[in-house]
Amino acid sequence: MSSPAQFTTESAVLAASVGAAVLYQSLVRSPPSFPRMVIKTASTALLSATSFLRGGPFLLVGALGLGSVGDAFLAWDDETSFIFGLASFLVAHILYILLFLQNGPGGMDDFNIKVHTILSKNWRAAIAGALALLVPFMISQLMPRIGKDLRAPVVVYSLVIFVMALTALTLQSSQVILGAVMFTSSDSILAAGKFLVPASSGHHAWMHHAVWVLYYAGQLLIALGFLSL
């Protein structure tokens, strides 16, 4: 059982994370800068710290920590930072996959029961079906519009986040499932905004805000879903 002092510390760290996320929302369209990067990174780094303080699973702490590293890279606009950010989130999604597999029915080994769990509820099957359509569609749209050096990393990343969302659908926590779907939606909008929507389009304003809200809220829901177990 957590002591009152420990609970206060955990609550303060979580509140700081939410505060940083809200502050970054007001800076999401600002030019890249070091203070902007720090605020963005702090939001997810503090979620990782909250998970650690609460004794959350190591895979959760690691996934959130890598997410904060990815945030630091993606706070800049150059291609090198984008590649490193993509790599950070790729590993984070792999950790989430392992976490979801461990905590889903059948553990790490029984994939038949996991498939049965997804197909047992219409809403789970519908989400899985929508993802199965969305991922190849996004890949087909992105391939002609990105450089050859980015094609393989983008395909691998798209498939990994697809598996991440599918494994989340095997869990009993609707909170974690919603968080994973929001995270996936955020990445889809980010990719569309970066590669598919013309730079002159007025849609970038709402897309930037949507990416951040869906991303942070998704990570928050996943974290709180596991910490409440």
Strand tally:
0
Low-confidence sequence ranges: none
Structural class: mainly alpha
**Helix and strand run:** HHHHHHHHH
**Could you say which overall geometry the principal axes of the C-alpha atoms support?**
globular
- Tell me about the biggest sheet? none
The rounded distance between the terminal residues' Cα atoms is 14 Å
Proportion of β residues? under 5%
- Summed over residues and divided by their number, the pLDDT gives a mean of 93
Number of helices: 9
* Rg computed from alpha carbons, rounded to a whole number of angstroms: 18 Å
Number of domains: 1
Overview of this protein structure:
The protein has one domain. Helix content is 81%, strand content 0%. The chain is globular.
Task: List the defining traits of the structure above.
229 residues; mainly alpha; 9 helices; globular
List the helices and strands and how they pair.
Blueprint: H1 4-27, H2 34-53, H3 58-74, H4 79-103, H5 111-120, H6 122-142, H7 148-168, H8 174-196, H9 204-227
Helix pairs in contact: 1-2, 2-3, 2-9, 3-4, 4-7, 5-6, 6-7, 7-8, 8-9
Transmembrane segments: 82-101, 122-144, 150-169, 176-197, 209-227
GO molecular function: hydrolase activity
Membrane topology: Multi-pass membrane protein
